[in-house]
Amino acid sequence: MKIAMIGTGYVGLVSGVCFSDFGHEVVCVDKNQEKLALLRDGKTPIFEPGLDRLMARNMAANRLSFTDNLEEATRDADTVFIAVGTPSRRGDGHADLSFVFGAVKEVAEVLTKPAVIVIKSTVPVGTNRKVAELLQEVRPDLACDVVSNPEFLREGAAIDDFMHPDRVVVGVESARASEVMKEVYRPLALRDYPLLTTDLETAEMIKYAANAFLATKVTFINEIAMLCEKTGADVKDVANGMGFDSRIGPKFLQAGPGYGGSCFPKDTMALARIGQDNSSPLQIVETVIKVNEEVKRLMIEKIIDLCDGKLQNKTIAVLGLTFKPDTDDMRDAPALTIVPVLVGRGANVRVVDPQAFREAESLLPNVVWFDDPYAATDGADAVVMLTEWNEFRALDLRDMAERMAQARMADLRNIYSCDLALDAGFEAYTGMGRKSHLPFDD
Question: Which residues of the sequence carry a binding annotation for substrate (predicted)?
């Protein structure tokens, strides 16, 4: 099949590359000339493990190309995927659909034959039906089908998620659209991955409901971690005990400094607004949003307590900035809340992250960048573990402690343990919902 992919952001690029690896002919469209030049040169504008190699292979096989010519890309396309951003609208939390409707209108104006228009972007319930109305308004002469096909990709594991999905959700209104989407995803069906076909509204809701539920799990275990600190329980053991229950499962039960990224913050906010607009408030989702922000603020208090209640002139090394490892994504990362407060209260902040520099340099001014975590902790008063990159999972803690002016650790991802840190020479340690040892404990 010939596929046109509108948008080469995270979802569009990963989806386009993976579809080409299925054997389809894929043309990815973007208006950003700088990004297009990078892509045509075989380089990816985002960091996603394995994406550059997969992209190069399919470009070499002439199954994958990049252009800014929308008319050329859609001329013979069987399907046109819309994969543009839907960020939170400033001021009210609604999803901003201007990019989606703008892309649909531009596509409709250049189509030369009926096509299946697939909305890959995350959109509120009812959006796909509005897209169908827009298509009819712009091109009443073309009988185009609209499909809702939400993505469920985890950053850092997106290729594996696309190639080995838990399910593929397709919202359709016609037999023709259903058959086309079956052909698009035929390679997965041959390997018995489930294709769930629903109506448009159900497909849209599945995406929001899934993300809100996962965000709820993250926030729930973070609240349990706070209670564990008050009661002496260990949140890692609690989460492990919960995860063995097949009704709960172990995923998304790792306590930390709050969720971030491209999906959970904007999708929970948008879903809450959908509930409010339909006079059916989602109180659990609204609470999840509120608690997640509170968790980030509590992390700041942890660091302040670790530093004897004051940050002025303290040197703090922060290891990890992205919202999760194996990505360069800084969107709504806890670091964007925590680091500016440290700087604002007079701390000298040093940061280390394997991939964040391109995104974070402008977002986090007044910090000093280091490539090496040991160099960053030389003479430091505290080290903060903020993202659980593999590079930070097996540090020589004894060497690090000896380098520091005050060997103190805020382990906000529970990479290590209090006993391990103290045995290595750290004088103070605070984690998430686990045994801690702070200066005033002596």
Answer: 152-155, 207, 252-256, 260, 324
